[in-house]
């Protein structure tokens, strides 16, 4: 049986149901709220300029403000970047929540932030308070941060070894699919209008409610039950439900081997963040996890997603054409992520990471060239070929990101660590991921205004650094157990 046949033979309908509920229910908050503001920037900034002066109480009478362009831009940057700040705080809470509540109940509780954040964003226009919009984005960011840490870990722990990479990629697929959904719904012809944008932001509540109703029917992580809770009975029941068969001895034996390994290393309690930083055996895997998260965010993808419409306009496209080019970018992101699910177990993690970053580097160079040519052209001779080529470069950039650097870091962290170290490692890695996300979303517009198209030179340099690091230091983890992977670092 070939690799793909072996992967899909392990996938059952119960596992598919659980993966959809976990992956798409949680990934929606991350992806949808990453892309939703891009299409409604104009209508929202117009509303901010005419918003009322904030006060100590949202119920007091307030005077209408007339913000300058610079003040409005600063407020808009706060609205965009506060989502990432919340994500960073949520990511740092992953270890505590997953250890004390388990994977399943952590995600259930996480929907409290979803409902609260969605409500604040929905009522912000009614209350004429951009502060409520910032607060709602912050709460949704916390939910996305928690989901980004726990969901890939949960998916990894319920997956058969042969399908671990494919199932781990589902979280990134959920992100890309919901970014595309937000771009479609954000069109002026759909919900991107002065009257409907609060409803557009409140759509994020729907998957939260769906997950609250469906996740109770799914089992908790059998690996967490066996290794953390020492409950082999419930772990066996969870595995039997997920695998749709009574004989799950192979999975249980793998858990037992890992437990013996942890006992032999005197790992009787949860590994803390300080342990990861101070103990030599964990330092190298942690550095790899952090570098992969930095490669995902600092390579420039969120600058492209957050400000893709502006990038296309600067390359010579009209406002309407730029919006549809952004949709094409989102569609490419989804389709190539699906391709990644199909090939990650065949070609491996390291190969796809290197191929993706190398392709992104070529597209960054091409986009930089297009922007330079457009800047040097006369206003009356907008080069249509250059504008079209810029679209190709951006779509290509996103496609290469989706083949490896996008999906792989989320589940690669879980592959590098034992059960007791995994929550702390995910907390650190996801916290770094969101911190980098915050830095890029907050600084890209000022840097772009200062450096112009040269801002992409910075991303090209970073991409080269990450390519060299991955080629030199990152191991291949395809079809290996945690113990086999750990042996590579000895």
Describe what you observe in this structure.
Helices cover 77% and strands 0% of the residues. It has 490 residues and is mainly α. α6 crosses α22 (422-451) and α15 packs parallel to α22 (422-451). The longest helix is centred in the first third of the chain and has 31 residues, at 94-124.
Give the topology, please.
Elements: H1 3-9, H2 13-39, H3 41-49, H4 69-92, H5 94-124, H6 130-158, H7 164-168, H8 170-185, H9 197-202, H10 205-214, H11 222-227, H12 232-243, H13 249-264, H14 273-278, H15 280-298, H16 301-306, H17 308-314, H18 319-347, H19 349-376, H20 384-403, H21 408-416, H22 422-451, H23 455-473, H24 482-487
Class from secondary-structure proportions: mainly alpha
Distance between the first and last residues' Cα = 33 Å
What is the tally of helical segments?
A: 24
The average pLDDT is: 85
Q: State the low-pLDDT regions, or none.
A: 55-62
Q: Which descriptor suits the 3D outline?
A: globular
Task: Give a quick account of the main beta sheet: strands, pairing sense, barrel closure.
Answer: none
Q: What is the number of strand segments?
A: 0
* Helical amount: over 70%
Radius of gyration: 23 Å
Strand content: under 5%
Report the order of strands and helices: HHHHHHHHHHHHHHHHHHHHHHHH
